[in-house]
Amino acid sequence: MSLLPFWFLYIISDVLFVIIYYFVRYRRDVVQQNLANSFPEKTEKERHDIEFKYYRYLADLIVETIKMITVSEKQIRKRVVATNSELVHEYFAKGKSIIAVAGHYCNWEMAALNFNFVTDKRFMIVYKPLSNFTFDEFFIQVRSRFGGQPVAMKQTMRKMAEYRNELTVSVLVGDQTPVMHEVTYFTNFLNQPTAVFLGIEKISKAIDAAVVFYDMKRVKRGYYTYTLVPLTENPKQTAEHEITDAHVRYLEGMIRREPQYWLWSHRRWKFKPEDKHK
């Protein structure tokens, strides 16, 4: 299926949308609850419109992900464009490694593939292993296609120490949900107390890396841009939780701009602050 051209995959996506939205009704209760909690100021019709557009996009995201197993470098360069890749070289010239923070927004995996072409330095993609071995292996294969080095989340600090004498780029997804026993910090995100990992902040301070955020936009079906937005160049000079709050706030702004491109079917709010004390 991955060998099929994009135009044909989008025909499949149109059919897939009907199946997952109307027949399977894939996690529609989760999506509706997430939208109601995140946008209480919107009308029911406005939230329904976001829900409908989200499932249309989710079908596209599924077929694009399948395509990534065979997509060519030429197609990735054509379909995903970095608007300010020179920022990477400016940081390297200052002797700074880079932590690039992404969200589950637009096709974040395709943007990571494109980032391989921005630099010839070591490029690591930090990921949270999936419980399903087959899917986990699939994504490892996709992420490593153009030279990226997938690194399991729990191995991150060890790898950073191993490559401390190199200039590197590390991509981390900032809106993962921690497991209960790992939660140490909640912040307000989309009108809700939200548990967040502090790993981005801890790693950037440990290796004194510049922190940037992927600001992704969907130009049209199958085409994207991303802009690297500087969050801090000197993480050791920031206050506790300052970096974490910065990337959470930026993601929230991006979601509010075009909410249909975030992963609403993800069970992001599994527990509340009071659950820590039960």
From TrEMBL:
<dbReference type="GO" id="GO:0008913">
    <property type="term" value="F:Kdo2-lipid IVA acyltransferase activity"/>
</dbReference>
<keyword id="KW-0012">Acyltransferase</keyword>
<dbReference type="InterPro" id="IPR004960">
    <property type="entry name" value="LipA_acyltrans"/>
</dbReference>
<dbReference type="GO" id="GO:0005886">
    <property type="term" value="C:plasma membrane"/>
</dbReference>
<protein>
    <submittedName>
        <fullName>KDO2-lipid IV(A) lauroyltransferase</fullName>
        <ecNumber>2.3.1.241</ecNumber>
    </submittedName>
</protein>
<keyword id="KW-1133">Transmembrane helix</keyword>
<keyword id="KW-0812">Transmembrane</keyword>
<dbReference type="Pfam" id="PF03279">
    <property type="entry name" value="Lip_A_acyltrans"/>
</dbReference>
<keyword id="KW-0997">Cell inner membrane</keyword>
<keyword id="KW-0472">Membrane</keyword>
<dbReference type="GO" id="GO:0009247">
    <property type="term" value="P:glycolipid biosynthetic process"/>
</dbReference>
<feature type="transmembrane region" description="Helical">
    <location>
        <begin position="6"/>
        <end position="24"/>
    </location>
</feature>
<keyword id="KW-0808">Transferase</keyword>
<keyword id="KW-1003">Cell membrane</keyword>
